[in-house]
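User: Could you check the structure of this?
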Amino acid sequence: MTDLKNNEEKFNIISYKDLPLKCPMPNIETWSSHPRVFLPIEKEENKTITCPYCSTKYKLL
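Assistant: Sure, the predicted structure tokens are below.
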């Protein structure tokens, strides 16, 4: 996962090997995060999605 600046928005870039996408990602400390949710990024037309809990933005490349 890497960061990308795109039109002033910051995305966490994920690849198909990271699917199914879940937030928070495994590298996030769970004690301070929200419950795990699965985000269907592969079904999104533009392959981007925002977590409804923490507003983290993801982009699938």
